Amino acid sequence: MRPNLHDYLKSAFIVLLLGSFFTQAEARKIALGVKPGLHFDPKVLHVLPGEDVELTFDNSDVMMHNFVLVKPGARMEIVEAANALGEKGPARHYVPDSAKVLAATPVVQPKNKSTVKFKAPVKEGNYPYVCTFPGHGFLMHGTLFVAKKEPKELTAGPSKSAGSPVGVPGELESTLFSPNTVTPCVACIGVAPTGEVYAGVDQIGSLGKGGGKGRIIRLVDEDHDGISDYRTEYALIDNPRGIVPVGNKLYVLHAKWGKGNKFDGMFLSVLEDKDGDGMADGPPKHLVKEISTRKFNQSRGVDHTTNGIRMGIDGWIYVAVGDFGFVDAEGTDGTKLTMYGGGIIRVRPDGTELETYADGLRNIYDVAIDPFMNVFTRGNTNDGGGWNMRFSHEIQTGEYGYPDLFKRYTSEIIPALVDVGGGSGTGAMFFDEPGWPDKYNDVPMMCDWGRGQLFIHRVTPDGSSFTQNQESFIKCGRITDVDCDGSGRLFIGSWGNSGFKGGTDGYVARVVPKGWKYKEFPDLQKRNEVDLANMLTTPSAKARLHAQQEILRRRGEGREVLAVAVDKKLTPRARVAAIYTLKQLLGTKSHEELLKLVDDPAVAEHALRALADRRTQVEGIPQAPFANALKSKNPRIQVAAAVALGRLGDKSAAKALLAVSSPPVTDPLPVFQAPAPVDSGPHSIHQSPLIDGNKTHQFDVDISGWKELYLTIGDGGNGDGNDHGAWFEPTLVKKDGSVIRLTDLKWTQATQGWGKTGVGISPTGAKLVRSDKKAMAFGIGSHAVSVISYKNLPSDIIRFKCVAGLADTHGGGQVRFHASNKVIKKFAGGGKKEIVEGPHAIPNSASILPHVARKALVALRAGPACVDAIGTPNQSGALMALRHMHHPEAVDALLKRFEKTLKSDTKQRIARSLVRLANKEKLYQGDTWWGTRPDTRGPYYYPTPWEKTEEIYQALVKAAKMGDSATRFVISKLAEKDRVSIPGLPKGD
After folding, report:
1. DSSP 358
2. Do 485 and 564 sit in the same domain of this protein?
3. Residue 820 contacts by C-beta under 8 Å, 6 or more apart in sequence?
4. 490: helix, coil or strand?
5. Which residue, 427, 680, 760, 774, could crosslink 447 as a Cys pair with Cβ 3.0–4.6 Å?
6. Which helix (H) or strand (E) holds 771?
7. CA–CA distance, 468 with 466 (Å, rounded to integer)
8. Residue-wise pLDDT tens digits, 220-254
9. Backbone φ/ψ region at 852: left (φ over 0), alpha (ψ -120 to 50), beta
10. CA distance 323 to 314
């Protein structure tokens, strides 16, 4: 039943009709129609100022539409007001009650017409007309020119010239493929091999809230001149963040908003267009639901949420997860997964077998995947908290350390390949297409919104990983994504000048080499099995992937694919594509042939990986080829074997894994050293012991002959957080016995690590009070690392006296005080060598095999085997793996070994693992997020006791009390570093 015309629309219509009876001149009659894909036809109309108009709207489409004429500049305001009508919309024909609406038809049913009469505005100008039916107004609009002369837009033919907003190297050329009027706020793009561009438009933005402002626009360049000719609104969908076209399917990562701006979840979904009309046939089918936490998407917006997707040649869809993480994401097979923080997950295209690929990342937006399944990301800075823009090679099962391991537990992570400073990584792809200059091909291309650049990272093999060099490539303001088609056209999406809550700016640009010629992509459905298998050998990654997907759709026997996989004359990337195609096509039936390829060095890595690629298909796979591969001279084969052994699930692999589990350099233990002797010569440095809590140190120093005095507060070796130090009642004694308060002198210079240096105040600015609450007449407060210098001391000064300690605002700090007659450079440690950690953004390929081997041991729950390895050459790797085994049986075995161990060094190293095991991470339930500048102390963000905590405490206290001073010191310092408060544990100082 058609809705009744709203009273407002009725009255306006009647007034317009009555007005026409009194006009002397005949009304100008205008016919307006529609074209498929939400287009008015024509898009430009002309009337004279004040002229009577009779417009007949012929809706020949299959959808309902209306015609609404509005004042200049009011189109989006009226469109949004129409969307906001909600349940009142049908009765009002989606026409808002606004003075900016000049004329309107009711909603016109398909294959029907409606006529509206109105008087043209007297004032000349460009008056938009728009369809305000929900979702249509973003695309379906035109312009009524009110002018005395016919505008050139009606007399001139359509213009195809369009300046490009992106800057490209001289060998390339660019065009504006789709302007902001068609594709504002482009959040992501996905390009079919045949050239159709799917642009994800997100006018909600990263910090906005609410539905109805997101959509996917399908763009087609029919004449291949770089400017889209035809577009359709493929689907209305909130917050599109990742798009992958495959055949007539479109995989989309998106949000859903409900009534009242309620966030209803984040999903990986699939849409289909079986009839080929450029529009999805129905609503999205969810493959993975709850793929981001609801609480923080609701409260903050979708900025640290789950984002881009890519399909690898292994057929998995890889998903970039921001550090909101998720709780109980669920695939179509009921598999559930939780991720605390950012990382990469993957899932089969039917929504099954959801699993973690890598974790410990920050707010990544997308992934780039090369032909050999190397995955790269360009992350997002945490605004000065030590984790800047970093380009990383993502290894399967890898832990990258954000936020609680990367600074202080670096030996336990895989470091980034480079830290490039500030910026905001967005879209990514690995470009591997023919027809381009060699220097721009076979490279990861990474978008950086903050820097307005598409970067190339030139990667050079380095063991099982790479080194890299970053190069600026294409300039594009607020670049969001990049993708290509099968003929070598590169497309770039931009947010333009829109804001964090959306806007109307944004675009899609096309880039090709100069002299580029369009080459039609084959119609895959018309190709036979031999043709498709041969396409796996092409130099185009796009062609290989989509040929593979067509082979899989047909479900053949795979003989032609096997022929490619075993042909040693073909390129490795062609054979790798065939290996993963064979695995997906035949499943367990492919294993016999894949096992043969393990002996072929050119493809052994991928034969091993493919064999163990699906946990649902590992039964019956022999362990021996993988254990043997751990001894390969090729580190990439070793890494593939180690990861695979963790997936096969056979605990008997532990011995082989332990043999490769030890890091290149074993973490040193804290070492007790006697304080260095005080230098009483002409250049003197006088230092306190470590000061924490209510401890103080009395300085009474002979400074005869000193011309300068430097008072330094260094950190105590555990970082300078909360290091609120103070010099209480500092005085200078003269030869005649008189005393000068140091606070009465003006210092030459004062620097501090945080807060303020001041007389009578703590670094926070609060009144200076001793931590032990003892009386104090005067003093100077400062924050480590602090240096206060006094130059040109009076010549008759002979002594410096002071009590040094912490201010009562310290909150658990630990410092060391120094009084000297020269600047000193070493502020921390000073007598006790602290645990040294390595860099976290410098390539370290030698650490990767041990890292993934330990991950495999944890996955196998191989605690007993690891305990048995203590005292062997594999001890270091075994104990590092045990740190992550919060399994009662593993802890029990480790405690027994700890009790029996007499050798001091071994006992201390077991203690390191036990200290770590005393706590575990809090169970993530989606109720917390660490913000943009999280606590990086580690090793857990929320250290939480568990069932074995008390037993571990007792064992450590006993060992500290009964052991030597070195063991007591080591256990104390390890507990301090790991933030474990053990009742009764003796201090190590």
Report:
1. E
2. no
3. 683, 684, 685, 686, 709, 710, 712
4. strand
5. 427
6. none
7. 6
8. 999 999 999 989 999 999 999 999 999 999 999 99
9. alpha
10. 26
The DSSP call for residue 17 is H
Residue in the block written with tokens 């936490």: 293
Pair 281, 274: CB distance under 8 Å: yes
Residue with tokens 């500092």: 730
Task: Provide the β-strand partners of residue 246.
Answer: 249
More confident residue, 733 or 8: 733
Quick check: 703 and 695 in contact, CB under 8 A?
A: no
3-state helix/strand/coil string of 393-406: EECCCCECCCCCCC
Residue 575 in contact with residue 567, Cβ under 8 Å?
Answer: yes
Which residues does 907 contact at the CB level (< 8 Å), separation at least 6?
A: 898, 901, 959, 963, 967
CATH code, domain with 191: 2.120.10.30
CA 788 to chain centre: 42
Mean pLDDT, the chain, rounded, equals 91
| pTM of full prediction above 0.70 | yes
One domain for residues 241 and 335: yes
Report d(CA 370, CA 312) in Å as an integer. Answer: 8
Interior/surface letters 624-640, b for 16+ CB within 10 angstroms, e for the rest: ebbbebbebeebbbbbb
DSSP code for 238: E
Q: Nearest-5° angle of CA 415, CA 420, CA 421?
A: 110
| pLDDT 10s digits, 908-940 | 999 999 999 999 999 999 999 998 888 889 999
Our measurement of the distance from residue 26's CA atom to the centroid of its chain's CA atoms, rounded to an integer in Å, reads: 63
Number of domains in the chain: 4
pLDDT at residue 104 tops 60: yes
pLDDT higher than 90, residue 443:
yes
pLDDT confidence band for 324 (50 / 70 / 90): very high
Q: Within a 10 A sphere around the Cβ of 767, how many other Cβ atoms? A: 12
Residues 186 and 259 both lie in one domain: yes
Per-residue pLDDT tens for 936-954? 899 999 999 999 999 999 9
Describe the strand order of the beta sheet including 125-130 as a list of residue ranges: 44-47, 141-146, 125-130, 68-70, 101-104
Domain for residue 563, yes or no?
A: yes
- Whether 37 shows a pLDDT value over 90: the answer reads no
pLDDT over 90 (residue 25): no
